[in-house]
Amino acid sequence: MTKAFTQFSPRRAGLVAIAALGLAAAYAVPAAAQAKYPSGPLKLVVPFAAGGVADTSSRLVMEKLGERLGQRIVIENVPGPGGIQAARNVLNAPADGMTLALLTNGTAISVALFKQLPFDPMTQFQPVSALGFFEFILFTGGTSPYKTLGDVLKASREQPGKLNIGTIVAGSTQHLTSELFRSTANVDIRHVPFKATPDLLLSTMRNDVELMVEALAPIKSNLDEGKVRALAVSSPTRSRALPDVPTVAEAGVPGFDVVSWNAIYVKAGTPADIVSTLNTAMREALADKELSAKLLALGVDGRATSPVELAQRMKDDIAKWSAVIEKAGIEKR
After folding, report:
1. Is the confidence at residue 78, as pLDDT, over 70?
2. What is 47-104 written as a DSSP string?
3. Is 32 exposed, middle or buried (0-12, 13-18, 19+ CB in 10 A)?
4. How far apart are CA 51 and CA 45, in angstroms?
5. Dihedral of CA 287/290/293/298: which sign?
6. For the chain, where do the domains classified as CATH 3.40.190.150 start and end?
7. DSSP annotation of 296
8. pLDDT tens, 150-160?
């Protein structure tokens, strides 16, 4: 019995070892495949309806990003107040980088505007990179007597309360930009809210409102046709899309600075190497000259950032818009 064991053991041990190695190798391939990121199509949850600037610019960038990652990226539009439902959709998904979130300057405003926003972009989301930046433009009607923003400021000071400044719905970035303009310029101009941009545009072309605050994309064709006139841009430097239009600061309101932005985030807890992979791919995608030109046609400056830079921008904008809302006496939701 002992002899049999002695003769059998080395051979059997070798066979067992070979079998074990083979079994390990068999399982190693699927494990490596599972570790590869991304392992399949990704999804970007956009808190706006299809067709707007955020949606259109996101689709352009996601197409290029998908090429860099070697996977298709599906857009899921989830419009709703404060981006709440869109945020929930992302937070209900695994923290594996397969579900991306589009957070924006509007997210920072929601934090400031809602009494109790049911998600925290600073702690429940991990920043990846900015997607694009864009300014708002102060327009007047094409037949308006006001040729410059200085003309509007002069008239508003000579006739307090007579002029109007129109924006889309109360609480929008456009509305808060108008509030910041009124307080920074120290002028008495009445705010008039509109349900949608087409209504606001029509009223501006009729000279029912003397100023309109809106992004370039939905107004560009009317601007090109001379139906409206661009008086100033809200950014601290001139727009690449409208280089001949002065900034609000240049036009007589020193220190005025509003730049809106869209950015890619993932759920907090996503592995750092995945965040790094996404950030690198975003930088490569946004360096594409063809993509840059398409975004600029929408009035968007396609530009990537580091996660740290993006986190700081969100923090700063929450503080900025909280102060604007408080000073304007806007009731929180």
Report:
1. yes
2. SS-TTSHHHHHHHHHHHHHHHHHTS-EEEEE---GGGHHHHHHHHTS-SSSSEEEEEE
3. exposed
4. 14
5. negative
6. 42-134+260-328
7. H
8. 999 999 999 99
Contacts of 257 (CB under 8 A, 6+ apart): 234, 235, 236, 249
Peptide bond preceding 38 in cis form (omega within 30 of 0) = yes
For 42-134+260-328, CATH number? 3.40.190.150
Q: What would the pLDDT profile of 243-300 be if each residue is shown by its tens digit?
A: 999 999 999 999 999 999 999 999 999 999 999 999 999 999 999 999 999 999 999 9
- Rounded Cα gap, residues 48 and 102, in angstroms: 9
Angle between helices 307-328 and 173-185 (to 10 degrees): 60
Alpha helices in 81-188 (DSSP H): 84-91, 105-113, 149-158, 173-185
Q: For the chain, where are the E strands, in sequence order?
A: 42-46, 73-77, 99-104, 125-135, 137-141, 164-168, 190-194, 211-214, 228-233, 259-267, 301-302
What pLDDT is attached to residue 35?
A: 62
Per-residue tokens: 42: 């990704």
Tell me the CATH class for 137-233: alpha beta
| Cα distances (Å, whole numbers) of residue 119 to 8, 78, 115, 231, 314 | 65, 16, 12, 38, 14
Give the type of residue at 112. Answer: A
